[in-house]
Structure formats: structure tokens, C-alpha cells
Write a structure and sequence with these properties.
Order of helices and strands: HHHHHHHHHEHEEHHHHHHH
Number of strands: 3
Structural class: mainly alpha
Mean pLDDT: 86
Largest sheet: 3 strands, mixed
Length: 384
Amino acid sequence: MNEGKNLTGSYGKIKPAIKAAVKTPWLWLIMLFPAGLLLSAAADNIEGAADLYCNTIYRAVSIVWNNISGLIPFSLGEIIILILPFAVLAYIIVSVVIIVRSKGNRLKKTLMAFVRLIAAASVIFFLFVVNCGINYSCSSFSEQSGFVAREASAKELYQVCVYLADEASQARSMLGVGESEPIRVDASSVRYAAREAVNALHQKYSAVSDGYSAPKSVMLSRGMSYLNITGIFFPYTFEANVNTDANDFSLPFTMCHELAHVRGFMNEADANFIAFLACVRTDVPLMRYSGCMSALKYLMNHLYSADTELYESFAGHFSRGMLTDLQAQSEYWKQFETPVAAAASSIDDSYLKINRQQEGVRSYGRVADLIIAYYFDEIASVNS
């Protein structure tokens, strides 16, 4: 009998707390989690839904908020990431204090504290879906722009690599930097060149929207290097954030890559290809050099796998200055070859696979096939 009374008494205390939690407006925010799941499923399973969303709602919202956040010279995303852990800790401490000090309604206070946390997590998830997640289901840039990715023979790969090396060598010679001195990039100036280069693509490739603001440098860029991160698109502020600690030749390419993500192209091969096109289609020597050298690093891996003899003979096409830049870049990243960087790469690989890029981090390298298609469609065909 005593046990029955205890159970009845406990239920009598829990029931009002549950009713209070159900009636609170916070419950509606929790419903954003299943709403996000439904939107993600619809984008993934209804043909054309993701493309329609990206070309209408996402494009309008992203341009507005990207330009608003662009008015602030520093990265809002970085500030939010730095503040968030402290905000969560402060919330937990305050909630515990309130619960301890409560006399007759501790159960209700505890339940409400959890409800608010779940509601906040639901809002974060929903915003990720509508500001980024749905775009993973969109048609690729190559599909929208008519590029057909193609594999090439070893000789064709060699031909493309030679073209890129010659273009890179010519661009570097225009920078006024000595052959034994590595290229150093001023992020504050090149960020505007990157913005203009990507915006200019709209004239030829309508799928790439124009009107977006410039990328931003991250204050804790060296911390990003420890995590093996060169750039990141922050979907909650629509900002393109870049690691500027290395400030080597690849920085302009990285900026354009992140600007492609801001425009809704979440596939890594697409973002790399858009970055390449933006760089090589401009008259700015530094941008051209960055695009060609970054593309070479992907294509050379393919050439090495296809034919080691051709790969070795191709090495003669590198100028001394290009080798200096590659060596400087290699030495910079070598200092960050730590278990932390390996773990971060593993997390990135899992993230990409969860978001429908089954090759994970290897998807970055798929840009090689698109660059080959670009060369034979727009360069070799014109020169022949």
C-alpha cells in the first residue's frame, strides 16, 4: 500500500511538470527538428525539389544575409563558435542554481531546462538544413553548366598538366617575386579580387549567382591549421571564412572555393571547379597562378597513378619559383601533421559521407575530371 501511494504521489508531481512543458512555446521550437528531417528527405527524394529551393528561396535569403554579415569586417561565424561553448556552460550553471534554489517545483524547473536545450538544438539543426543541408541534394555545377566530367588517357593528362604548368609559370613571372622567394599572399587585398572573380562567372555560367560579398579571414587561423582546415562556409551567417596563416599561393583558390559554397554548391568537386574557373578566367596574375597551381596538385596525382614515366618527365615543366612555392607549402603543413589533424580529417570525411558525398574527402580530387573536360572543351578545341 505504501508503494502504491509513493507511485501515485510521484506521478502526481510529474504530471503537472509534463503539462507545463507541453504547453510552453518552447515545444513548438522542438518541432523544428522533425520539420528539418522532412525537408531534408523531400530534397533528397523529390526530383527537382532541391534545385528549385536553391535557385529561389536559398538564393534570395543567402544574398541578403551574406551582404548584411559582409558589412562587419570580422567573421561573425568565428565569434559565434568561440562564444557557444561558454554560453552552453553558463546556461547549465544558471539552470542548476535555479533548480537547487527552487523549493516546491524542482522537477518542473529541471524538465524546462532540458526542453530549452532541446529546442535550441532543434533550431540549430533546422537552420543547418535550410541554409546548407538541402543544397547537398542539388544538381551538380557540371550538370547545370554542361560540363561532362571525363577520364583521360595518360598522354591527355600529361597534356593538361603541361598546359597548367606553362600558364602558372607565365603568371608567376608577372608577380615580380624572385625564383628562390616563395609567394606570400596579402589576404586583405586578394579577398576582393576573389569576390570579383567568382561574381564575374555569372556572365558565362548563370548557375553561379553574383552579388555576394568578399570572404573573411579568421583570427584564429593557426588553430584551423592544427585542424587541417583551410576554409569553412558558416551557414548561420552565410560567410566564407578562410585560414590565412599559411598565406601561400593557394589562398585565392581557397577563397573562391568557399565563395562557391556560399552560392549553394556544397559538393566539394563543384566548389573546387568553380574556384578553378574563377581563378583562370581573370586577368589578375596571382589569381591565375593560384588556380593553375591548385589544379596541378590534383591532376599530378592522377598522372602519377596513370604513368610514372610521364609523371617524371613532366617534372621538368616546373619553374624554380614554382618548386620554391610547393616546398614552402609542404614545409608549412608538415608541422601540423599531428593526431589532432588526422582526427579532424576523419571527422570531415564522415561529415561529407553523411551529406551524400560517398567518396568523403576524396571527393575534392574529383575536380580533376572536370578540369580535363574544361581543357578539351574550351582550350584545346580553340587552339586546334
